[in-house]
Amino acid sequence: MAGILLEGENVTIEQRAAHARALSAEKAEVSRRRASELRARVGKHKLEQALRIPGDVIADEEIAAGGYYTATLGSSEHLRIIDLEGQQAVDFLCYDASDYENRYNAANTIKMNRSIYVGKGFKLYSDRADVLMTVSEDTVGSHDTIGGCCSSETNYLRYGIENTPSCRNNFIAALAEHGMGSRDIPANLNFFMYVPVGPDGATEIVEGRSEPGDFVELVAERDVLIAISNCPQVFNPCNGWNPTPIRVIHWRNHS
Hints:
Elements lengths: L12 H38 L5 E8 L4 E6 L4 E6 L6 E7 L2 E5 L2 H8 L3 E2 L4 E3 L5 E8 L4 E2 L7 H8 L7 H10 L12 E3 L22 E7 L3 E7 L15 E7 L3
Antiparallel strand pairs: 1-13, 2-12, 3-11, 3-13, 4-5, 4-10, 4-12, 6-9, 7-8, 8-11
């Protein structure tokens, strides 16, 4: 990632780590100021819109920066994910609740939607080409299907820093609650994360487009298990360099 990674044959791990830490601290301060300005300008209005739930709330939780969340949704139930501060990547997986081997499949999802960008109406397909969930509402419109999740291992490779918190570790913890392990983690999608692709195929993670109070909502097309990692990454722009909380509301239509 141009300007983010310190690269070169003569660069040591220690130099790479020092560069990553210094850049992260510098960018985080800028990000906090931006978020504060946006929150004052648009946050209240957007959050009021996001909290208008047209049904019966089953669960309403705030997920801390770097935390995870897992739940089972019945068919036709909704999951609303609210970005409280803006630019917060939310790594997401879903599984057929009756058969966890029938899980979200990124390649099938991209092929069937004919797009790498998630927006309203986008359907999440499984390994067996079943529709697991559909994006029913979205106030951003450019969520990511190709960037995958961060891991302690790739963070070390890229930034020279060992044992960092990561979405992969969060997924392992979330799925362990359902008797699953690391082999049950497919390539995930990322809400509120922006990964543009150039005409030559070049791509990299850049700062997201979401603002405080933006949200995405999904409806379950069958009983599904979902797992969320509220991304802890601080060494690239996927969270605007500053991981922040999200709010998750699980609801159903009025009886």
